[in-house]
Design a protein that fits this description.
Elements: E1 2-6, H1 15-24, E2 29-34, H2 37-49, E3 53-57, H3 72-78, E4 84-93, H4 101-118, E5 122-127, H5 130-137, E6 144-146, H6 155-161, E7 164-167, H7 177-185, E8 191-193, H8 215-226, H9 230-245
Parallel strand pairs: 1-2, 2-3, 3-4, 4-5, 5-6, 6-7, 7-8
Helix pairs in contact: 7-8, 8-9
Bound molecules: zinc ion (ZN).
The site of zinc ion has 6 residues, from loops.
Length: 250
C-alpha cells in the first residue's frame, strides 16, 4: 500500500518510527510533500534517508502572498533531485485565503510551467475554488493529481480530463456521503488514497495526529463506497500511484 500524500516534515516524533509503524500496516511507500523551500529541503532529506519515501516539492497556496512566492527559481533547482516525483503541492484555497487568490493563481501558474518544463506531474490543492482551479488547469497537458479530493464540483472536469483523484481521511467522516458518491464515480485507473498526515485523521483515529499507517482506514472506506474488496482496490491504487508518479515498485 502507498500513502500518496504525507507531510512527514510536519509530523512530530522520529520519522523512522512513524515509517516502521506504516510498514507494520503494510504501507511501504510514502510520497512526502514539501510546502515551502525549507520544507522541500527536509522532504528531500527524508527521501534520501528512508526506503520507500519519495518527494513532491512545491510552494503551497498559503504562502502565495509571502516572500516564499519569490523562490520559484530555488524550487526549480531542488526539483532536479533524483527522488523527486512531482511538483506540488500547489493550488488555490478560497477558504483560507480568499483575499490572496490572485497571488495564489500566479504561483500556481509558475509551478505548472515548471512541471511542464520538467515533465513532472502536479499535485493540486483546491479548496473552495473548484471553478477557478478547473480554469487554471485547463491549459496544462501533463498529469494532474487532485490531492485531498473534497470538491464534488471538480468531478466532471476530473473525469473529462483524466485527472487522478486522491482521497484523504475526510472521505471516512459520517457526513461525507457526497464525497463517497464522488469516489464511487472515479475510474478504476484514476483513484488514489492518501493521509495528508499529520492532518485529517480518518474516523477511527479522528482527533489524533495522522500518520501514513492510517491510510488503510481511507482505503477501507473507499472500497466500501465503490463496492470493491480492499485487496482489489489496494492493488489498483498501487498501480495507479506507480503510473501517476513514475515510482519504483516496492
Ligand atoms: Zn498536503
Amino acid at each position: 500500500m502507498i500513502d500518496t500524500h504525507a507531510h512527514l516534515d510536519a509530523c512530530g516524533g522520529d520519522p523512522g518510527e512513524l515509517l516502521a509503524r506504516a510498514r507494520a500496516a503494510r504501507v511501504v511507500r510514502v510520497v512526502t510533500i514539501g510546502t515551502g523551500i525549507d520544507s522541500c529541503r527536509r522532504a528531500l532529506e527524508l527521501a534520501d534517508t528512508y526506503d520507500g519515501v519519495s518527494a513532491a516539492l512545491g510552494i503551497d497556496p498559503h504562502r502565495a502572498a509571502s516572500a516564499e512566492a519569490g523562490r520559484v527559481d530555488e524550487l526549480h533547482d531542488l526539483l532536479a533531485h533524483p527522488r523527486v516525483v512531482a511538483v506540488g503541492e500547489t493550488g488555490l484555497d478560497g477558504y483560507h485565503g480568499a483575499e490572496t487568490l490572485g497571488e495564489q493563481r500566479a504561483l500556481l501558474d509558475a509551478q505548472l510551467a515548471l512541471a511542464d518544463d520538467l515533465g513532472l506531474p502536479v499535485v493540486i490543492h483546491s479548496r473552495a475554488a473548484s471553478g477557478q482551479t478547473a480554469r487554471a488547469l485547463a491549459p496544462f497537458r501533463g498529469t494532474v493529481v487532485l490531492h485531498c479530493f473534497s470538491e464534488p464540483e471538480l468531478l466532471e472536469a476530473a473525469l473529462e480530463r483524466g485527472y487522478y483523484a486522491s482521497f484523504a481521511g475526510n472521505v471516512t467522516y459520517p457526513n461525507a456521503g457526497a464525497l463517497r458518491d464522488a469516489a464511487a464515480r472515479i475510474p478504476a485507473d484514476r483513484i488514489l488514497a492518501e493521509t495528508d498526515s499529520p492532518y485529517l485523521a480518518p474516523q477511527p483515529v479522528r482527533g489524533r495526529p495522522n500518520e501514513p499507517a492510517n491510510v488503510v482506514h481511507t482505503l477501507a472506506a473507499l472500497a466500501a463506497a465503490r463496492g470493491e474488496t480492499i485487496e482489489e482496490l489496494e492493488a489498483r491504487i498501487d498501480e495507479n500511484a506507480t503510473r501517476a508518479f513514475g515510482l519504483d515498485r516496492p
